[in-house]
Amino acid sequence: MASELSLLAVHPHPDDESIGMGGTLARYSAEGVRTTLVTATRGEVGEILDKDLDPKEAAPRLASIREAELRNAVKILGVTELDFLGYEDSGMAGLPRNREPATFWQADEEEAIGRLIRVVRRVRPQVMVTQNEFGGYAHPDHIKTHRVAIGAFFYAGDVERFPGGEPFRPSKLYYTAFPKSQLKKIAEAMERAGVENRFSSDGEPPPFAVSDDRVTTWLDVSPYLEKKLAAMRAHRTQIPEDSWFIKLSEVLGPQAWRLETFERVRSSVDAPVPEDDLFAGLR
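and the corresponding structure tokens:
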């Protein structure tokens, strides 16, 4: 159906989708929106924090482990379709791994944009969501995801530059966003509870925090919190039970993960600011 509502989320590694917008994916899936997740890599050089695994034994097969975790997470969230861009994890910024030719950081940008455009033209999303220009915490794969997603958003309608398939231009583009005010409240609560504070250093907000005035879209995902937390827990290699992600929900309760926030950066339709629906102006 041409009028079917469709949401495309583009993220670098397994777990980014659940942490940043798991409740959002669960909400729109429950509402009958076609939800598609594209993950650039399988996170093959990530940490292995699952205590049931021997890190040395598991490291060579981490890509398949994390893919299985991701497939479990998207099943919990009700995501309609999962696609991989097919690149390797580039590792943290400044590591020799960044220079490996098969990594996403080294990928030909035009080729990567073309791969994503094929997905855009097939699922025809009115709404696209991805990383901001800083890439969260300046991880090479996050930055590259931003650039590739932006390219696909703007060029999916250009069949001369990227031939193949029916041209399509999404209506709205969003970045996941973590407002400073929200992170400050979380940091204060964690300090009061004596839990490791990952949200500030010497009173300064973390690098992935953005000014509140950049946040346009505030979604209350309270009805989908159980699914979000279950999806996060599905990423066992990254989010074990004793991780600060889980401790945060124990300290703050539903407040910890109740809000998912976004920055609307492009819209061809009239929509309010602030808004509480990624599809505002489209239905």
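(Above: one complete record from the training split.) Strands lie at 6-11, 34-41, 81-87, 127-130, 172-179, 209-210, 217-220, 259-267.
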